[in-house]
Write a structure and sequence with these properties.
Helix content: 25-40%
Largest sheet: 7 strands, mixed
Structural class: alpha/beta
Number of strands: 7
Number of domains: 1
Shape: globular
Length: 152
């Protein structure tokens, strides 16, 4: 799905989700960021259901799409930790990615920002030299004024 009517090359993003509500929220945040950007920005967003990344045929297809992405958004609910296979997929993406400057973002469904796998995702981003973006959802918030970014 392409977002924003601005001209210029589209930046690719992949949203890994387990909830349609969080996937839609991630899409909305990217649309909002594109609309507020002072530069010509257009997103090409590829949503991927998280459990498909554990299936061999889909895993390879998602990796090929992911390697073109500058941003991976993790939009998952109710996890105590990232599943081993998803962490491995993210590690492989980080090594094989096409762009040196890339980011890993986590969208939390909890307005207080509590997310059990936050430290695990942050450590992965740190190991791989990725910018880490964390977005706890504030009640009624559609924009990204609450985003926190951590440069590595």
């Amino acid at each position: 799905m392409k977002v924003s009517g601005k001209n210029g090359p589209a930046m690719k993003a992949m949203v890994i989700y387990d909830s349609f509500v969080l996937a839609a929220k991630a899409n909305s945040l990217l649309q909002s960021a594109a609309g507020k950007s002072s530069c010509e920005l257009e997103w090409d967003i590829k949503p991927w259901r998280a459990n498909l990344l554990n299936l061999p045929g889909f895993m390879d297809e998602a990796r090929a799409e992911g390697n073109e992405a500058r941003l991976i958004v993790i939009a998952l609910e109710n996890l105590n930790s990232l599943p081993f296979w998803l962490e491995q997929w993210l590690e492989e993406w980080a090594v094989e990615r096409k762009f040196e400057e890339a980011a890993l973002a986590v969208l939390s469904p909890d307005p207080r920002g509590n997310l059990a796998f936050f430290p695990q995702a942050y450590r992965l981003a740190s190991r791989q030299g990725l910018t880490f973006i964390y977005q706890p959802q504030q009640a009624g918030e559609a924009g990204c004024s609450g985003c926190r970014s951590y440069e590595n």
